[in-house]
Amino acid sequence: MAVPCLPSGLHLCSRALVVLLCSRGKLGWGILFPHAAVLLPLLIWTLLYAISPLLEKRWLERVFGADYLEYKTKTLRFLVF
Q: How far apart are CA 78 and CA 3, in angstroms?
């Protein structure tokens, strides 16, 4: 039995709020500290965030069922602030 998917607030504008907000933070860290010791972990973090939607999407579809599929058709994944 699927759990209801009830998005609200900013989740009505974007399905990837965490990715968007963390990307802004990573960009700031990269600008403030342009050193390999900072940029390499930021690059790895970015790659993990690029891969995670592939796994997350399947899980969300399984848990929320048709509600998530409907939400996915109505809401963009990314919204650039």
A: 24
CA distances for 2 relative to 15, 67, 69, 77, angstroms: 19, 9, 12, 22
Structure confidence at residue 30 (pLDDT): 92
Distance CA 14, CA 75 (A): 6
DSSP 7-75: --GGGGT-S-HHHHHHHHHHHHHHHH--SHHHHHHHHHHHHHHHHHHHHHHHHHHHHHTHHHHHHHHHS
Q: What is the mean pLDDT of each run of 10 residues along the chain (81 residues)?
A: 69 76 87 94 88 83 88 77 44
> What is the token pair recorded at 59?
């899980």
Q: Where are the domains of the chain?
A: 9-74
